[in-house]
Amino acid sequence: MFKIQRIRRLAGVAALTLPLSIFAMGTAHADAPWLEDPSICSNIQTAPGPISVNGRTVQIRYGSCNGTQYGWGRILGYSPLDYIRFEVDITGDRVADGYSYYRAGERNYTAGYPTSSSSTRAFRACYVALPITDCGNSAAASTPWW
């Protein structure tokens, strides 16, 4: 089950939760429903703009599940201690409003978030050493917004 919260509320407690979150397999934070395991989706494709950095490939994937299209992040060529992080913008300002992350050694893809034809919805994915690091602070290891 996912713990659902706004990012703004997490900032104040990040230092307190860091020791526990490092060992968490994965989680998702946002106001809308996440799909825990998008690998069950069909017609899975890779969005334009995957990046390669230090032997790792970071991608945004998307596919249909139960009549809804979802997007999620995936990492290939990873170290078991890397994290894959997937960020969602729902307001159009290209600042993450929610995110999901997983330790790549446990699972190399994130939870999925519903796509939208609205220009206010966008996704990006990145690889990070710590799950509390956002993709903006890891720009060289981040896909462009899609």
Tally of structural domains = 1
Strand content: 35-45%
The helical percent reads under 10%
**Quick check: average pLDDT?**
83
Poorly predicted sequence stretches spanning 5 or more consecutive residues? 1-25
Secondary-structure-based class equals mainly beta
Total beta strands: 9
Compute the CA-based radius of gyration: 14 Å
Order of helices and strands: HHEEEEEEEEE
Q: Termini distance?
A: 26 Å
Describe the structure.
The protein has 146 residues and is mainly beta. 8% of the residues lie in helices and 36% in strands. The protein contains two helices and nine strands, in the order ααβββββββββ. Strands 2, 3, 4, 5 and 8 form a five-stranded antiparallel beta sheet that branches. Strands 1-7-6-9 form a four-stranded antiparallel beta sheet, with no helix packed on it. Strand 4 (56-65) and strand 5 form a beta hairpin. The longest helix has 8 residues, at 14-21. 36% of the residues are buried.
Properties at a glance:
146 residues, mainly beta, 5-stranded antiparallel sheet, 9 strands, disordered N terminus
SSE layout and pairing:
Layout: H1 7-10, H2 14-21, E1 26-29, E2 42-46, E3 51-53, E4 56-65, E5 68-76, E6 83-89, E7 98-103, E8 113-114, E9 122-128
Antiparallel strand pairs: 1-7, 2-4, 3-4, 4-5, 5-8, 6-7, 6-9
Short summary:
With 146 residues, the chain is mostly beta strands. The chain has helices at residues 7-10, 14-21; strands at 26-29, 42-46, 51-53, 56-65, 68-76, 83-89, 98-103, 113-114, 122-128.
